Amino acid sequence: MSDGRDEFALIARHFAPLARTPAARGLLDDAAFLENAGPLVVTADAIVEGVHFLPDDPIDTVAQKALRVNISDVVAKGATPSHYLLTLQWPATRPASEIGQFAAGLARDQATFGCTLLGGDTTATPGPLGVAVTMFGKPLGAVPPSRRDAKVGDDVWVTGSIGDGRLGLLALTEGLPMLNAIAVAQLVERYRVPTPRLAFAPAIAAFAHASMDISDGLIDDAWKIAVASGVRLMLDPDATPLSAPALAWLAAQGDRRLGLTALLNGGDDYEVLFTAAPSARGRLLEAADDAGVPLRQIGAVAAGQGVDAGGIPASGHVHRLGS
Amino acid sequence: MSDGRDEFALIARHFAPLARTPAARGLLDDAAFLENAGPLVVTADAIVEGVHFLPDDPIDTVAQKALRVNISDVVAKGATPSHYLLTLQWPATRPASEIGQFAAGLARDQATFGCTLLGGDTTATPGPLGVAVTMFGKPLGAVPPSRRDAKVGDDVWVTGSIGDGRLGLLALTEGLPMLNAIAVAQLVERYRVPTPRLAFAPAIAAFAHASMDISDGLIDDAWKIAVASGVRLMLDPDATPLSAPALAWLAAQGDRRLGLTALLNGGDDYEVLFTAAPSARGRLLEAADDAGVPLRQIGAVAAGQGVDAGGIPASGHVHRLGS
After folding, report:
1. What is the pLDDT of residues A79-126, one digit of tens each?
2. With left for phi above 0 and alpha for psi between -120 and 50, is residue B218 left, alpha or beta?
3. B321 touches chain A (CB under 8 A)
4. Is A184 found in the same domain as A97?
5. A288 half-sphere exposure, CB direction, 13 A CA radius
6. Same domain, yes or no: A26 and A171
7. Can you give the CATH number for the domain in which B97 is found?
8. Chain A residue whose CA is closest to B27
9. Chain A partners of B30 at a C-beta cutoff of 8 Å?
10. Are strands A295-302 and A232-235 parallel, antiparallel or unpaired?
């Protein structure tokens, strides 16, 4: 399906160069054809203007975010991204000239993450811009870690830093006058263009028991692992890795506990939350060091259910604009 | 990504029963895992409220249409649908109770077409309902027919009937007072719930040279085959298969030629347009008969370029509501 020849020309010009695999058939066919897809990790996530990104976010970062929230899922399964399909709902009110910048964002991330456009669809919409991506990944282990394989006695780990995405959104919507311009820019960048930890995927494949990416907030997502695995996750909120801007923001809060609650429930982190045997500690830290990926142990898996985050409550999806 | 626990509960209740393959991991993971995907046909198409369906179309038919426009692509490649991912952008203004009816529509078509939900994503949207589907298919032949394999001397064939979708849309938006209620209902059904010719997929795989599904109108899509294959498609407009309601509508038009122009450029047909060697004629007609799929030869492939439809012009995407 398409909206006729206009789309035909638009796609040919901007998207065909992104699909340099014979499997994509130059985006000129009804379907792509993978001769042998082999073992495949598959995920599909959409981002919508006004819900997952702001209307005036630069359009190339919107393209990057759409890819990265999906790559983040693939990486959390100990896999590397290979191909993706893109379904674009383009508002009639948005200049078609932005399509080129959008494609440039895709091209940049294809190079960064080693994946290729395989197919998709562009339609006009009377509503907000919507970008749906289906991402394929090649698992590096025999079976990708699920959410349900946390074992009592496991360590709980998290990559990168937590809460930056939430603060970046706050900076854009309400302003963060207590921070300097460089700190604000760093947080905004984290909100707009998250950082999937691709270099750490082999370590996830080798050592992770349960694993997922954090999109709805650290505590909310820890809760999902706890439910799926039938265990209790004991998290030390003070062990949560925070970036320098987040630490500065936290220091400026009257109530440190309320501040931590916001950061740990912020969402848009796109870091990996996983559990692993304590015996893997040394090798995990070494792998993280080699990969240049920040890694911190933030808790342990116990018998029971739910999440104990030192009394910090799970406040749910406070970070969504539209819900 | 999700909108937190509400979605979590909603999906678990309505969508998890649709994902009865271990590969889907109960929709409780970040990604699905196919141990060996093998040869794979992949397509992604979205439908948007107010563009591809009407706001008051029954919600179960919206689900069916979203699947069927994708299954139609798979069938046109001589493949059978196996799995799909669903990305749902659900308006805050639409009652959540409709999710159950939406899922019922999916369930009905999963049974009809033999495919299974593999994963996806539901997000809130301030805009219209959007349903993006990525569909996987198993090719029945070694290499699925593309658009670029039409050969000079081939016959041109089409399944089913042409123009019904366009008339169904007209019936809903402007009314068709010249037709009786049964005819109108039949056309509306064709607009809302197209009929992918699954039973004919083996014949496509065995005999088709170039093949595609008709979504933008017979002439427009014939033009795509012509361009991709570097040939000229000679179509006999009077050979175009028309349903009884379409014939009645055409008879009521003052100008038969204008009427035919509308039908041949209508879009939303989701029939298969393909070319094949004249030597396959007998076996194609036999296969169509066995499959219970109407099949008609509507022209031939000649040297040259573009489409000759007996002087009927390609009027482009006249059928879209929003464009």
Report:
1. 999 999 999 999 988 888 899 999 999 999 999 999 999 999 888 899
2. alpha
3. no
4. no
5. 18
6. no
7. 3.30.1330.10
8. A43
9. 43, 73, 76-77, 147, 212-213
10. antiparallel
A87·B132 Cβ contact <8 A: yes
Stated pTM of the model: 0.93
Q: Residues B56-88: pLDDT tens digits?
A: 999 999 999 999 999 999 999 999 999 999 999
In terms of Cα–Cα distance, which of B122, B266, B85, B321 is closest to A125?
Answer: B321
**Residue B90, domain extent:** 5-139
Percent of chain B at pLDDT > 70 equals 94
> What residues of chain A lie within 8 A of the CB of B42, using their CB?
31-34, 85, 118-119
* Residue A279 neighbours by CB under 8 Å, 6+ apart: none
- The residue assigned the tokens 């009314």 is B175
- What pLDDT is stored for residue B92 in this prediction? 84
Å between A185 CA and nearest CA of chain B:
24
Q: Residue B157 is encoded by which pair of tokens?
A: 């064939």
Chain B residues in contact with A148 by the CB 8 A cut-off are 28-29
Are both A186 and A282 inside the same structural domain? yes
How far is it, in rounded angstroms, from Cα A33 to Cα B206? 17
pLDDT digits (tens, 9 = 90+) for A191-247: 999 999 999 999 999 999 999 999 999 999 999 999 999 999 999 999 999 999 999
CB contacts, 8 Å: B123 with chain A: 46-48, 51-52
Residue labelled with tokens 């893109």 = A86
Q: How far apart are CA B291 and CA B281, in angstroms?
A: 15
- Between A and B, how many CB-CB pairs are < 8 A? 259
Q: How far apart are CA A158 and CA A165, in angstroms?
A: 15
Regarding whether A224 and A112 lie in a shared domain, the answer is no
Give the DSSP letter string of A240-282. Answer: S---HHHHHHHHT-S-HHHHHHHHHT------EEEEE-GGGHH
* Chain A touched by B315 (CB under 8 Å): no
Contacts of A218 in chain B (CB under 8 A): none
Q: Show which of residues 220-239 on chain B sit within 8 Å of chain A, judged by CB atoms.
A: 220, 224, 228
